[in-house]
Amino acid sequence: MAITDHATALVQAGVPVIRLAAGEPDFDTPAAIAEAGISAIRQGYTRYTPNAGTLELRKAICHKLREENGLSYTPDQILVSNGAKQSCMQAVLAVCSPGDEVLVPAPYWVSYPEMARLADATPVILPTDISDNFLLRPESLAAKLNEKSRVLILCSPSNPTGSVYPKELLEEIADIVRKHPRLLVLCDEMYEHIIYPPAKHTSFASLPGMWERTFTVNGFSKAFAMTGWRLGYLACPNQFLAACAKIQSQITSGACSISQKAGLAALNLGFAGGEAVATMVKAFQERRDFLVKSFRELPGVKISEPQGAFYLFVDFSSYYGSEVEGFGIVKDSESLCRFLLDKAQVALVPGDAFGDDKCVRISYAASLSTLQAAVEKIKEAMVLLE
Ligand code: PLP
After folding, report:
1. pLDDT of 345-359, one tens digit each?
2. Quick one: which of 14, 72, 267, 375 could link to 294 by a disulfide (CB 3.0–4.6 Å)?
3. Which backbone phi and psi does 155 adopt, to 5 degrees?
4. How many C-beta atoms surround the C-beta of residue 125 within 10 A?
5. Domain Aminotransferase class I/classII large spans what residues (predicted)?
6. Which CATH architecture has domain 2-23+275-385?
């Protein structure tokens, strides 16, 4: 937030800041989806929907989960919410009691530890290493499990690292989960469609014995460029779904009726979002390739090539400790981001916010030419730290 405020102040002062901090696609919502929303308004489809979401949308979600993820759910096991963030929060709130532990591999999406705290649970951070592509080692998980362990949160493809969990690793994790009857798994699959070959997405709930204890969370914001429509969903066994639905009915009720019609159109675009999504993913992949190549040219920088999502999580820690005249010492990810904002006019997010202070997150939800300009400016500024 501090960096965002600083960037906003600079923009207001007329400085042309390149913003690579956003967690949202730079594309417009595909036309067929937007039209479905417009037509919903024109047809007066503007009233409350059932708390859990419209039956037609929940049926379409079941179809998607069956065809694309090999998961079998019925509409009464689907809860449509105002974004996947709400879905995650409700799952944690529904099953955690005070003192329970929520296991969060780091780097993590910023909201997970706070969600645990909001539920009076304790976040237990499981560090990972860039040399393991930021993937959780099964033995690190096993070492932290006890009778208080309640929820393990997995995010694949990951925000902020872009890492994708291979099926074999998920199977090893499932073997450990199986030994802890009280442990549930929240699998955040938000970036499922934004994945680069040869990486493949595996839904944790599709592994033997895992359906019964997994919350599968997904949504429309990222793959369909629908961040502002606020639409996400959760799929899980009935007893958990009932608890989540009860929470939702008291805090927000059902998601926006117009967005649900748009969401239905999104699912009707075809397998994995069809051409419209494939076009965006192709652009993201080109940008990823460009950024990975560019940052590999910078001495002392470590990168794990993202396999999905639209973020690059770069380890700049070899530059920490450098003093720059008129700025001071760049000592951590926050000061590095302030430095890059001041000297390169590029806004990035400090890795500290994601639980890894060695790194900085670069969002490539921006055009290739914008990224080229940003890289040039970052490279020029980094020379001051050598
Ligand atoms: N999960 C992850 C990993 C995210 O990065 C985000 C958004 O940044 C969300 C969930 C929330 O998505 P939504 O817009 O559907 O609330």
Report:
1. 999 999 999 999 999
2. 375
3. -130, 115
4. 17
5. 16-378
6. Alpha-Beta Complex (3.90)
Domain limits of the chain? 2-23+275-385, 31-272
Counting ligand 1 atoms within 8 A of each CB, the residue from 190, 194, 227, 361 with the most, and so the one to mutate, is 190
- Compute, in angstroms, the gap from residue 98 CA to the centroid of ligand 1: 25
- CATH number for the domain running over 31-272: 3.40.640.10
Query: Encoding tokens for residue 24?
Result: 């949202």
| Residue-level pLDDT at 273 | 87
What tens digit of pLDDT does each residue of 231-246 get?
Answer: 999 999 999 999 999 9
Where are the extended beta strands (E) located within 220-319?
232-235, 302-303, 311-315
* Tokens (6 digits) for 19: 């913003």
Burial category of 87 from C-beta neighbours within 10 Å (exposed 0-12, middle 13-18, buried 19 and up): buried
Report CA(296)–ligand 1 centroid distance (Å). 28
Burial class (CB in 10 A: 0-12, 13-18, 19+), 328: exposed
CB within 6 Å of ligand 1 — which residues? 23, 83-85, 109, 155, 159, 188, 190, 219, 221, 227, 232
Per-residue pLDDT of 138-188, as tens digits, reads: 999 999 999 999 999 999 999 999 999 999 999 999 999 999 999 999 999
